[in-house]
Amino acid sequence: MNSNMAFYAVQTKITAKKGYISKSLNLDNILECSTVEQLRSLLLNNKEFERIFLAAKSDNINRDSFEAILGRFTTIEIEDLLHYFSGHYKDFIEELLIESEIKDISLILRKIAKQESLEGIENRFVHSNRYATLNFDKLLTSKNVHRFTENLKGTPYYTGLKNLTEEDAVKREFHIEMKLYVEFYKRLMEKSENLNKEDREAVKDIIGLKIDLLNVQWINRALNYYKLSPEEVLFYSLVGGSSMDYKQLKKLCYSKSYDEFRKLVKSYIGIEVSKKKGKTGNVNYYLYDYLKKEKFKNIGIAISYIYLIDIITDDIITIAEGIKYEAPKEQILDYLSYSK
Fold first, then answer.
1. What mean pLDDT do residues 165-174 have?
2. Measured at the alpha carbon of residue 22, what is the angle toward residues 204 and 97, in degrees to the nearest 5?
3. Distance, CA of 335 to chain centre
4. 125's torsion region: left (phi>0), alpha (psi -120 to 50) or beta?
5. How far is the C-alpha of 251 from the C-alpha of 265, rounded, in Å?
6. Mean pLDDT of the chain
7. Beta-carbon count within 10 A of 71 CB
8. CA of 230: how far to CAs of 2, 215, 227, 262, in Å?
9. Which residues contact 200 (CB under 8 A, 6 or more apart)?
10. Considering the entire predicted model, what is its pTM?
């Protein structure tokens, strides 16, 4: 038994949490909501969701604030799980909090690049205050993109953004996020090397699959919408996938046609891709399909739970967006990943 991970305590805690979440998470009822306020009221009947809305201490909920509150759910759950880990294992789980910081950094940068006001932006933050790796108050003093990157010095994010220009920040938003994610997954996989063999394999299986799916999503978008060179697409691809190595990634990036790209993806990771929007172009759809079939008796139980929370909250945010634009229920359903 690993002394750095209280496995049975983690298993008991997560099993209980999953029960609370799924018990009252009725998709049919959620899809009947016609306003964000109705959706919020429904979620307040769920023990796990109730505490994040009560922590927000606000009854004035719009779509942006609703998304931010749900976005904090994963952060809060990771913070709770950290109590069950120590040593290198705690370091690894804590590293997963970096993703929420990337979301907030990207949000601030978008506002600065577009010369929009930062007033009240902290209400949309989803990062952990307790385990923050940078001074967000200092970032909020940035008047332009150059000052923003200068204020990142000494943090894990500076290397990827130090040469960022005003034009990049405005026109290459998705590329910037990919730069940050390249560094995030690199550090995450490096930290996994300090875990024991069984846990390293679980990380490779779960996070490695997510990396493969993110790469397919990125290359698919890059080939169809961004019209980047194959070299540039490869440069922004993530390292550490479970099924695709560098050579295979390169083949995808240098595909001579979309049909060739689709066939390669099918042969490498066994999924169908298309140009159509919807769940088949959604990383969470395939990730959830994998997670619901697996039973983990190692650190995988914590990672899979964290990813499950991400999938559920992303689906609820998608429903909220559908409500905002009065999309038909059938159309919203096509974008959802979670099912019991």
1. 78
2. 40
3. 16
4. beta
5. 10
6. 90
7. 21
8. 44, 13, 9, 16
9. 192, 193
10. 0.93
